[in-house]
From TrEMBL:
This is DUF5703 domain-containing protein. It comes from Perkinsus marinus (strain ATCC 50983 / TXsc). InterPro entries: DUF5703_N. The keyword Signal applies. It holds the Pfam family DUF5703_N.
Length: 107
């Protein structure tokens, strides 16, 4: 009795998997908040044991900095907060944002 229903569900699921197109992501403003480089305006990435927060520091517009704060799920402080165990910074010269304040990034 359940076999035909399960077959229909499998066929429907397979059809959805074949027809799925990932969405197009477009950011129209890549500038961070003025003078605020914190975890609040960073992009969290990662899943599992390692994670990171990526941020852009535009205090010096001629040479912006992209920073990555690395964390590990096993690194906790006394207050129960996940600690950052490393930092990587990239200095860009010349600035990739010289085309204006509305730089578009398509992914």
């Amino acid at each position: 009795m359940h076999a035909p229903f399960q077959l229909l569900v499998c066929l429907f699921t397979a059809r959805l998997a074949w027809s799925y197109q990932p969405p197009s992501v477009t950011w129209t403003n890549l500038l961070s908040e003025k003078d605020a480089t914190t975890y609040v305006n960073s992009m969290p990435i990662g899943n599992g044991g390692l994670a990171a927060n990526v941020f852009v520091d535009n205090k010096d517009e001629r040479e912006p900095v992209v920073g990555i704060l690395i964390s590990d799920q096993r690194a906790w402080n006394e207050a129960g907060e996940i600690m950052k165990v490393g930092e990587v910074t990239y200095h860009f010269s010349p600035s990739p944002w010289t085309s204006g304040s509305k730089t578009t990034l398509k992914q």
